[in-house]
Amino acid sequence: MKFKLIQHTLAALFFLGTAWHSYSQEVLTVEDAVKIALENNFEIQIATNNSKIDATNVSLANAGILPNVEGVLTNSNSILDTKQTQADGSIRELNNAKNMNLSYGLVVNWTVFDGFKMFAKHEQLKQIEQLGNTELQFTILNKVGDVMETYYQIVQQQEQLKVLDTTLVISQLRLNLAKNRYTIGKASKLEVLNAEVDWNTDNTNLLRQKELYANTKTTLNELLARDLTTEFFVSEEVIIDKSLQYADLKTMVSSQNPQLQMQVLNKRIAELSLKQVKGDRYPTIGLNSGYNFTRSESSLGFVSESTGNGLVYGVTARMNIFNGSLQNRNEKVAKINVENARIYVEQQKNQLESQLLAAYTTYLTNIQLTELEEKNEKIAEQNLDITLEKFKIGTITTVEFRTAQLNFVNAKFRNNSAQFQAKISEIALKELAGNLDLE
To answer: According to the model, what pLDDT value does residue 438 have?
Structure first.
């Protein structure tokens, strides 16, 4: 078909026209974009660091299980005017009497039992670490989803540019024909003016599309955390996975969705907080020991100097007997927090099932639309090809030709949009299922 030849020629001219000033631009694949985002994206980097903090916090010492060892030094001095009255009534006086007390050594304190709170705390730290990893996974899925959606927007807009470039050339052809016919007296000035207005309209649409194309590329560069002026082309190929099944996706959502997993972990953390609160009902037992050296000097008194060193040790125990019923209050609040966490889990499940069902319905509709719009584009293309031949020989009006031209442009736009929407639906479903391809 002649119009098919025009299309292929204009597609080649489109890329040659854009490549003369950008021959060194990279062709960015969606896999490359995802890889760059995983390495550079700021939100992913922050989430990664937060996850490292959570992992670092998991330790026996942070849970209070290990003993605490301290080095202690105390040195006190005084200069006093001192007066002492002895038992026999004699008086001893000394001005500027110097006194010194020095002690130093090691002190060990170790809580050996606190109602199992320390063990619950250690387990809670592990759960918080898992929560941090899950939050990192959620951030990664979110950002990768954004990158993929933006990438395929650029693919769509790149195709739209080709369509608009094609229709602009057709409008130019129509304008030239109208001018030629006007010159030889077979067309009116009105036909030339109409053709010129339509050419200007198509040129405006092309400029707007170029603006949108450039701005969307800037958005993708921002997501990739690289120089915003980095130029690139995107691959035109869009492969849509049409094999997704609702039952399989629902199973994956239950086991892999990060949002649901975060709520489950929050529930476990709340349960461990309750366990720690209950631990306050038990006694706390601690061991203390140390090795001390002491020295004291006094300018006035029975003992002018004394020293001592050796081992000190002991046991401390304490137990809450009554604290104004605060224990009951704290336990009641902790139990309510556990119940709220359970409700949040059920709420998240319900929301995800609703989102999955709606997204899957949209996915199926978009798959059907891709097939329909692809057929419609072929019909519109055939119609334009026939109309173009008739217009050349003057058997149809310019209005009929313009209608066929716009029908073709709209059919191409709808087909491109259907392909894009189907791909976005696929990405949304895989993101919900926690099953996006990150490689």
So the answer is: 73
